[in-house]
Write the structure tokens for this entry.
Amino acid sequence: GTMEDDVVRRDFTINALYYNIDGFTLHDYTNSLQALNAGVIRLIGDPETRYREDPVRMLRAARFAAKLGFSIEPNTKAPIKPLAHLMQQIPPARLFDETNKIFLSGHGVKSLAALREYDLFKTLFPAANKHLLNEDSSFPALLEYALANTDERIEDGRPVSPAFLFAVVMWPEVQRRQIDKLQNGLPPVVAMTQAASETISEQVQTIAIPRRFSTMVREIWEMQERLPRRQGQRAFRLLAHPRFRAAYDFLLLREQAGEIPPGLGEWWTTFQNVKESERKDMVAALRGSRGARGGK
């Protein structure tokens, strides 16, 4: 079709500005420059109709607002909360991609605030949202610290993984299920394994998590049970584990959020940075102390 035909297929005015290399001219059919200069996200056409055509546009509006520091125009914003439930119609595989764009692009903290403001977070992560609303839970702080850490890593050019994000988001639900199973008499490791399977199975109904990432998520969770157990050769084996670094970072965030008392993270930090002989001394010092299971 023509350029005019293409304009009406675009979602937001800021994405509908055209540049003609023949004559070096701008073609602005939707007041795009005005919206850009004003810092406004505005849908092209009737907002409710456009959201119903593709509910992912609600996520895009929130993501652009967070990324660019723009505001969402009132008419564009108004239907988002009432229509947030339409996200359930989107294929889970597509929502996995969209979630990565939202949280793994360097503006995760602001994106979380935007998703919560428009009731989109609870549609993507219904179980996690319940824990996020619990004022007595350490989860809000854990999630905030994790996203801030991710934003910092991206700014520094360091790698990030969706597995770590999903491990954090689903963590409080895993803990809740594990506690229930412990109360029913299951051993801690078995309780964690079953709780992990149930939590992931529930979450993938909304957001499809590829197996290569869900496997990493499980390993990060399971190592939270193993990191306090450091006697004998256990500490050396854990240090050599391919998921040690991710599990260690996860542990530090849990301490930072106040979920667990400080001390264990400091022990592992020191253990990584000393010589082999000093590591043996650190492990030997744990014998007969309660520090073998936790703390310093």
The mean pLDDT is 94.
